[in-house]
């Protein structure tokens, strides 16, 4: 994991904070950027985003620590595709479409668990942890069956930096190195593989881009969240990107302390501060339970996993919580309170606002939204979304990963 790279970023960040103190300014995007309002509800555009983004690029589907042992599995639905992630006896995680080879029943209910094999609830065809079909009820009635080609349909899945990455379309290659553009080396500093998974809660929201705009938006913090937590925050941030992935950092005065400390003592919590997003649907934020512990790296990650809902007007967000330490009962109580609070803030402030935007976009009153020069992060997100929708084949996709967007 690249602490050196983090230090380099922290040095740059310190300079930004010092400049911000002096001038009240952070670097801005070159220009304003307009996004057609139709992009937030038009069914054709939405279909294209499903096919050319969610069903094509690697998605962050889960955490290694959610399924740490052989037989541990997680079943979930992503962009309409029911899937299973399972750890085999060889320690590898595999992905499958959650669909029986007989007549298509979903083998597992959504959720996590542990199993030695999977038996279909419809007619009891049974599969092992590597997806092979191992038993057919009344097999003699099915003629000559070649079970070797009747296993579960595999999805390409890879475990990296404690996260489970996968495609939800059979046969689609991940091209993970190209997609991540070195970002995994930075994400590794979060040490997700040694975290403790301390819960998940799920929220309904508006169109996935209306919702995701909010995760890249510092501008709204002191306003929309003024009555809950935002009043202490400034409304500007700087964005650093690796391919389509972005880190968002506010000028945090606490970082000025670093100037007086030798670099080997710069706390990991400060080095990994800010919001780390993974295109197109993940936001990683963190909070501490107490200051001393936080400085030593003791923090709780909130990893929001945002997926499109069944239509352009809806989305589903899983808020996942991982602790960098084993919390005791009292700490767990504090974490649960914070989870309730974060649920409230996102549901009642962010998505409340987003759901109302979902109505205004269809009024015909405006043709475009405008993203200011202070909204460089959301601008980049929309440029990538547009570029992916324009990249019609694998060659275009790989070219885009290589060149990025302007
Ligand atoms: S659909 Fe699964 S056994 Fe029939
Ligand atoms: Fe917000």
Account of the protein in words:
The structure is a single chain. The protein has helices at 3-23, 43-54, 176-180, 183-187, 208-215, 221-224, 268-271, 291-295, 329-360, 376-390, 394-403; strands at 33-36, 59-63, 72-78, 81-87, 93-97, 111-114, 118-119, 126-127, 133-135, 154-155, 157-160, 163-166, 196-205, 238-242, 245-249, 275-278, 282-287, 300-308, 315-323, 368-371. It is α+β, with helices and mostly antiparallel strands and 406 residues long. It has 2 domains: 3-57 and 175-403, Naphthalene 1,2-dioxygenase Alpha Subunit, Chain A, domain 1 (Alpha-Beta Complex), CATH 3.90.380.10; 59-160, Rieske [2Fe-2S] iron-sulphur domain (Rieske Iron-sulfur Protein, 3-layer Sandwich), CATH 2.102.10. The chain has 11 helices and 20 strands. Helices cover 30% and strands 25% of the residues. Strands 13-19-18-17-16-15-14 form a 7-stranded antiparallel sheet. The protein has a 5-stranded antiparallel sheet with strand order 6-3-4-5-10, with no helix packed on it.
Distance between the amino and carboxyl termini: 29 Å
Q: Tell me the Rg in angstroms.
A: 22 Å
- What's the CATH H-level homologous superfamily of the largest domain? Naphthalene 1,2-dioxygenase Alpha Subunit, Chain A, domain 1
Q: What does the overall shape look like? A: globular
Helical segment count: 11
Which secondary-structure class do the elements indicate?
Answer: alpha+beta
**In this structure, how is the largest beta sheet organized?**
7 strands, antiparallel
User: How many domains make up the 3D coordinates?
Assistant: 2
Calculate the mean pLDDT score and round it: 96
The CATH architecture category of the largest domain equals Alpha-Beta Complex
Which small compounds were modeled alongside the protein? FE2/S2 (inorganic) cluster, fe (ii) ion
Arrangement of strands in the largest sheet? 13-19-18-17-16-15-14
State the helicity in percent bands. Answer: 25-40%
Task: Name the quaternary structure.
Answer: single chain
Query: Percent of residues in beta strands?
Result: 15-25%
Count of beta strands: 20
The low-confidence runs, each spanning 5 or more residues with pLDDT under 50, are none
